[in-house]
Amino acid sequence: MATVRVQQAVFDLGAESAALAAGRHDIGGMASFVGLCRADDGLAAMTLEHYPGMTERAIEAIAAEAEARWPLTGCTIIHRVGRLPPGEQIVLVLTASAHRAAALESCAFLIDWLKTRAPFWKREEFADGQERWVEAKAEDDAAAERWARG
Amino acid sequence: MRILYFAWVRQKVGRAEEEVAPPPEVVDVAGLVEWLAAQSPGHADAFANRRTIRCAVNQEFARPDQPVRQGDEVAFFPPVTGG
User: Which H helix or E strand runs over A129?
Assistant: First the structure.
């Protein structure tokens, strides 16, 4: 069962890794992905909006899919919402397994699916005061599609 | 029926949510979109390009042919951009 949190507050990868591994002797490796807010084209901040209720359900469903595909011994997903200036953390995906391949592959799968199947929307704010909604990218869809079971 | 709007769909409609009572001939998502689009200029603008709108019924992603009924929570939003 994955730990899923949607929060405004910053997260601590070290603390989350320690919490996931505490008291466990069956974990052979952990993989993590931390998404950060990047300052493209004079970006001043990004605001993340979500669909409370559905967001948690959707992330839990994505985590359950990962747990069905790989023998995971732990999984933590934290996604931040609200206004985030460049350099701020946006998302954490942390996976643990007996062996590295399952941890690494499931971590990549989770971030690919989070980008295309969890109800979050990013609005960008620029230094000149302009704002715009980020558009979904075809390459994100392609990245998520590579995990499709044929 | 409770309707929720997110991101630019919310901005164009001009509200985050509303309670609606569509007529009985509205039986699925596609029919609901047609009916909502006729409710105000803001709704018409939000639903102008149907292909750019995604939907969830009772917090599960839904296609245009998904049935909707009284008491459902139906959300409309752009393609997601999290992660």
Answer: none
